[in-house]
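Researcher: Good morning. I'm working through a list of sequences from a screen, and I'd like to move beyond sequence-only analysis. For each chain I'm collecting a predicted structure so we can compare shapes side by side. This is the next one on the list. No need for commentary yet; just the structure.
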Amino acid sequence: MSSLYYVWTVGGVTTLLNIAGLDVLNFYFLCLTMCFALLFCEDTLPFMASLIYTPFTVSARRAPYTIASSEYYSDPVVLGQLIFLCVLLAAVFFIRFFTRREWKKVFRKRLLTYGFFAVGAALALNGLFSGIYAVISPLWGIMLWICMVGLYYYLSATLIWKKRETLQYAANVFFMLGVDIALQMAALYLANPSFIDGSLKDYIRLGWGVSNTIGNILLMTLPFGLYLTHTSKRPAAYFLLSTGILVATVFTYSRAALIFAVPVFIASLIFSCVSGRNRLTVVTVTSVIAAAFIIYAVSRTDSLKKIFDFYIQNGLDDRGRLELWLEGLREYLKAPVFGYGFAYRFGDPLSAIYFLHNTLLQYLCACGVVGLVCYLYHRAETVWLFLKRMTAARLYMGMSVAGVLGYGLLGGSMTNPVILLFMGAIYALAEKDYLETHTVRALY
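Model: Good morning. Structure tokens for this chain:
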């Protein structure tokens, strides 16, 4: 379980079971491998290697809101098994947590502690004194905070740090997630060829998310494949598969994801060509890919135009975002200190959470000026973590985080619990790398 073969096997099995629509079997597989890792592995990375796939296990064949529209998850037998697996995993986790006394290691001050607790206070107080205070607002805020700090604190306390081996293992975990999702997208398009021109963007859904969410996750995983291209012994394979992740991002028709995925890809490519040990391989594979694309573009111009019609027609159209932002700012003026809360729009309290599709405005409007200041303080801590005595590993991890944050200016990445959970894992890895930079050479 500590080898890369395990990481690749988990990714492959999970992908096949997802495409086949064997969701319950997939959940059993992931749950049992996580339980085994928690009980018998000293390190917690094998646990994360299975955990990371769990939110993306629901298949397009079985979800009730996809084009297949299944009642699979309303079946009491299916729900009963999922509840059983959740209880089993929770029990095993707490057995490890207390028998190994990991709780003593978790609850310690870390590099990002002050920023995280400042954001936690802001999220807990969102909507206070706004006049339409809804209990669901602080509950949602606390849940977001738990997701932000959960994997960060746990992995910071329990990872067995072996520098190169740990970074290679963790990068493969995130990279294989990107490959898994790219293959899920390929299966979706094979089943629905009419999606190819983007005119049915609203129907581009996997079982666990819509097109924009898919693009966001692919954007987060892309730099890890490029890091492995830069450092591993298999640069050609990693680079080809990373290019496949970028292509899958194109076919999500998520403009916000693509706006940041392309610069991240190009910046990583330049860095690998300038300073990586695999420069020759990267240049050769890049030339082959570029030549293949040019040949395809010349011979199949109409087909290529059809693919990019959505981007050409929509251009910089805000698709309602500007109106949404202005409305949020108008409402913010009524409750400037702690904001109007997450469950609020157009002057009416709601029973569900509402998103502004912009991280800064979300914190300002939902949590007030207090929330925005706390968030910016937390963000300053994370920027310092990635930039101070930067290494190649933290450069690529920083590009992953920067891409997601950039997407958050146009989408809802910082209000997505899964994104927050995995960003916490990236922070934990970056922190471990930073603490070791006094013994290794940094980029500057």
